Amino acid sequence: MTETLFEKIWNSHVVVERENEPSLIYIDRHLIHEVTSPQAFDGLRQNQRKVRRPDLTIATIDHNVPTTDRSLPMIDETSSTQIKTLENNCKDFGIKLFGINHPNQGIVHVIGPQLGITLPGSTIVCGDSHTSTQGAFGAFAFGIGTSEVEHTLATQTLWLEKPKTFEISATGKRKNSFAVTSKDIILSIIKKIGTDGGTGHVLEYRGNAISDLSMEQRMTICNMSIEAGSRAGLIAPDDKTFDYINNREYTPKNYHDLVETWKENLMSDTNAKFDKSFTIDVEKIEPQVSWGTNPAMVSDVTGIIPTPEEFGHNNEIQIESAKKALAYMNLEPETPITQIPIDRVFIGSCTNARLEDLIDAAEIVKGKTVNSDVSAMIVPGSQMVKHEAEKLGLDKIFKDANFEWRESGCSMCLGMNPDILKPGERCASTSNRNFEGRQGSGGRTHLVSPVMAAASAITGHFVDVRDWC
Amino acid sequence: MKPFSKLISIITPFDKANVDTDQIIPKQFLKLITKSGFGKFLFYDWRFDHDGKPKNGFVLNDSLYQNSQILVTNENFGCGSSREHAVWALKDFGFNVIISPSFADIFYSNCFKNGVLPIILNIEKIHKLLQFKDKVELDLDSQKIILGDESISFEIDSHRKIRLLEGLDDIDLTLKENENIEKFENISSIIPIF
Hints:
Chain A is α/β, with parallel strands linked by helices. Chain A has helices spanning 5-11, 38-46, 77-93, 108-114, 146-155, 182-193, 208-211, 215-223, 239-245, 255-265, 308-312, 316-329, 355-365, 383-391, 394-400, 450-459; strands at residues 14-16, 23-26, 29-32, 57-60, 96-98, 123-126, 140-143, 157-160, 164-171, 201-206, 232-234, 276-281, 288-290, 298-300, 344-347, 375-378, 403-405, 426-429, 444-447.
């Protein structure tokens, strides 16, 4: 019988399987952060339970860390309490923590791959929906709630109903592979299949337009699977995958033997059956800009904001959503995207704050200056990314152009730390969610790629970055 | 967990699609380290103005629905962030049942862990419920919502149903499988991080 890649990973992790019941699935990697874990550890304490496998568990602090000078005391007392709580919990339960001043600190989905902790064929969970990022390595990686964090800590397993499979084929070649990025590919996919198109399914991204991408670009794609409703999205590993993981701090000792096994097994069989399929030709994709309050409300940079009727077709609910979104965003239908002025630029988040993202953004920014009406910041995804970028002199390029160069963390992707938009401010953001108030109450988010964000910072409005390179 | 029992309640009509968990509980309230006390922050930016005063016209501010335990909403409810705080806030506010044509996967799963019943119904039935003004009776055991003379049946996974009805703790149940977990660990090549 033929199997998809997801089914192979699933089948090799089944601990208990009974007819018409959810299956008990073994978890290979559990990543923890400060926001969704305190109540889970409390639960363990109340029931006098231990962490079953500290050797498969790591923790870091990313969601509410300040991105300014960390030698200063934290102003926000509740954030500080949450961080101290994680430090104490890790100490009490014997979990390795990359704390606020550790060189491995960073956004949890950025450091997993950088440290060689994320492995092909594995099951990976974290109390964060963007765990799907790590599916780029051919892993079944998915976000969980706090109760499931507690369950994983106590049992190293989860009860799951087997998701269906959804093949996303990306074919063709991008016309300008510097200016049209993997962010534009995934936004185009979500625009077509909708924010619930993948609900109940694991996505597998395939085709030559996916193989062409670097590992970091693939992570951007898998990261936003959840924005299409899928808990997980994955890509079959290849030589790029194996090279990326090689020689990292926690790369397994018998790595080369593992690679041989992975090469033989980790791919969907020819003729494997998917429950659903969708194909996109990347040749036609332009740089994308979101105009609304969910990640399916997206236009080509050369396009205009659609009328609610055009957006919703005949679906009343969608038409209403678009009307509400335009009112919130303070935008009129049929406005050209390039005429939308911006106040802020945020280059950061688990979607787009890895080294390549910063290299590409710096290429656009080099020798130019941020528009005087715009305030722009770069928040590297991890301390390792920050350090590598500084070795390349990227910090200097950004600072010379009047970008702020910050410490690593989730920052203004969700604004749990002091990095937030003021009410009414409009931001070009490389993050993943343009929900109402996501980056600050009353703030207006436009999702774009790092090169689009960088170019918009210079001009003060959206601009077709293809004209720049 | 408290067993889920039969309930009689008025319906809170909440006819919105794609309600994300950032709206259900905005991020500034995620810093608590307990599971209780989130109800007062439910839909905070929709419920309150910039001065923290309740907004007129927002359904949850209507005293008519003060004791309602049933929220009826539109498609893709609970999308976005995995934050279980969204379910804690709904539960703490008083909602024990959420009815929608579809739910986001993580939110759906989080509901069951906290004794909240998410029910999926087709859009015609949702419209009927949204317009129903009197109290309804909801019985999980018989999988029925009774609206006066009429009743609407709903589907639910039998295992999830039993766990809710009996208030069973997931971890307790899983620890009974310890032998199987150990067996799996012995035969599989699990790769430790360290």
